[in-house]
Amino acid sequence: MSLQLLITGGAGFIGSHTCLSLLEAGHGLVVLDNFANSSPEALRRVQELTGPQAATRLQLIRGDIRSREAVAQAFRAAPIDAVLHFAGLKAVGESVRQPQRYWDVNVGGTLQLLKAMADHNCRTLVFSSSATLYGFPDQVPIPEKAPLRPINPYGHTKAAVERLLTDVAASEPGWRVAALRYFNPVGAHPSGRLGEAPSGTPSNLFPYLSQVAVGLRPTLQVFGADWPTPDGTGVRDYIHVMDLAEGHRAALEVLVREPPQLLTLNLGSGRGHSVLELVAAFEAASGRAIPYQVVARRPGDSPTSVADPSLATARLGWRTRRGLAEICRDGWAWQSANPQGYGEAH
Ligand code: NAD
Ligand code: UD1
């Protein structure tokens, strides 16, 4: 089955890896991205990896999801069967300083997209939600039915979009929606050609320690070694970005095949790793020492966040296949070959 898909934010970290996976599955893609946090070079490399024939199935529209005209142009580019909606802003600290901008892009942008979808009779949507919705969880591993208690503006915008999607799906028959709550997406395509290219100083652990390993930054700061975890450092559920890409493919197939529904699923591995475990695994993969110092806890952090991914496995027949060693191997292949990310073009 070959579909025509609109991919918002398709040039970004998760979007670009998912575009590659979807092209390899034979789908046609219209990518809508304004490159607010990405480079066209990522899509050029997606095309390079798929080869010239599949590459013709990717069309790019440079535009903003908040622009009615840009979204309409994307829908005119091909008869769209389904939308994968990655576009959005994702930096927690920035969202505290600029909440209006986050609400405008993440919530306003989604509203604009939903209007265009209804106008074009397209009611199949996969949305990038986040485990950030769970705030400080009472229970780990975290099931989807856990209470939603976001603790920052970024999380509030994701909760608002999930609420919006629930209301829209209930308002008329025919909506097929998947809200996928990602845990901690990391790693890179094994070719070393695609990966995460954060602009400025990374705020997340994996890109930061990759930059320390390659010599761009002197030391990793470990935010607290006094957490109630086995070695005292924070525990997270790290998911290889290619496992995440495959999760999108699986969700799309289920949405298209089954009767209309709203699916809300955790995408994670179900396994937790501490900061120090990740440091050790990255040192082993890279052969480089990663100097670190323990500093105070970061405000807003929780000790442990691990998915209960059993619903995704049951509903999608999907589970993660790549562990910490592959995550670090592929992350290092990317970082060592592209120390400046996508370079000048970024
Ligand atoms: P990213 O920043 O690499 O990708 C987002 C893409 O959206 C970028 O290409 C950016 O240029 C584009 N974009 C931003 N604003 C836009 C706008 N107004 N119009 C058009 N395009 C716009 O981020 P990512 O890590 O690939 O995340 C993708 C999605 O997944 C986001 O919605 C994010 O909130 C969500 N998510 C990410 C993580 C994570 O840790 N990376 C975790 C949970 C959820
Ligand atoms: C962060 C966001 C969360 C978002 C998620 C995925 C915060 C408070 N939370 O979560 O909303 O959904 O990213 O994008 O920003 N760490 C260090 N040193 C560093 C960086 C991180 O020790 O330089 C530690 C953290 O304390 C944590 C772990 O590493 O224990 C992972 O941190 P990070 O990669 O930022 O992810 P989250 O904290 O899960």
User: Strand order within the widest sheet?
Assistant: 3-2-1-4-5-6-11
Largest sheet: 7 strands, parallel
Instruction: Please identify the top-level CATH class.
Output: Alpha Beta
Radius of gyration: 19 Å
Shape: globular
List of distinct ligands in this structure: nicotinamide-adenine-dinucleotide, uridine-diphosphate-N-acetylglucosamine
DSSP strand count: 14
Percentage of residues in DSSP E strands: 15-25%
- Low-confidence spans: pLDDT under 50, at least 5 residues? none
CATH superfamily descriptor: NAD(P)-binding Rossmann-like Domain
CATH architecture: 3-Layer(aba) Sandwich
Query: Helices and strands: which structural class?
Result: alpha/beta
Number of helices: 12
Instruction: Give the end-to-end Cα distance, rounded to a whole number of Å.
Output: 35 Å
Number of domains: 1
Order of helices and strands: EHEHHEHEHHEHEEHEEEHEEHEEHH
Mean pLDDT: 97
Features:
3-stranded mixed beta sheet, 346 residues, binds nicotinamide-adenine-dinucleotide, alpha/beta, 12 helices, 41% helix, 7-stranded parallel beta sheet, Rossmann fold, binds uridine-diphosphate-N-acetylglucosamine
